[in-house]
Amino acid sequence: MALVTADVPTSPLAQTEAQTDPVPSGPVTSNPWKPVWQLSKPSTWTLTLATGTGTVVRTLTGTSTAAAVRASWDGYRQDGTRVNGNYTWTLTAGPRDGPRART
């Protein structure tokens, strides 16, 4: 038996589902925000959380071994102070077998 590499490009990373509902009354340590994104393959990811004016308050990173990206945020900044008001999030993910993509 011989294995032959078939110069076939890898498929791009794609989002197939997302569950990003907010936590009523905001996330806290005992009830964090736990979003889940279902991607088409395993990835490395960065979740950036920012205030309504765009100031980054927290950055979470991880590597998924399956296609689901699971994060958890307790509503606190990197420095340990509480975030008040509205916030936005950006998930940046890259397939573990190719270049990074933004979702």
Mean pLDDT: 88
Approximate shape:
elongated
The fraction of residues assigned to DSSP E strands is 35-45%
Helix content: under 10%
Task: Identify low-pLDDT runs.
Answer: none
Give the topology string: H per helix, E per strand: EEEEEEE
Number of helices: 0
Kindly describe this structure.
- InterPro entries: FlgD/Vpr_Ig-like (IPR025965).
- Residues 1-32 are annotated as: Disordered.
- Residues 39-93 form the FlgD/Vpr Ig-like domain.
- This is FlgD/Vpr Ig-like domain-containing protein.
- By secondary structure, the chain is mainly beta.
- It has a domain at 32-102: Immunoglobulin-like (Sandwich), CATH 2.60.40.4070.
- The chain is 0% helix and 39% strand.
- It is built from no helices and seven strands.
- The strands form two sheets. It has a four-stranded antiparallel β-sheet, with no helix packed on it. The chain has a three-stranded antiparallel β-sheet with strand order 1-2-5, with no helix packed on it.
- The protein is elongated and about 55 Å long.
- The N and C termini lie far apart (41 Å).
Secondary structure layout:
Blueprint: E1 15-19, E2 36-39, E3 43-51, E4 56-63, E5 68-70, E6 87-95, E7 101-102
Antiparallel strand pairs: 1-2, 2-5, 3-4, 3-6, 6-7
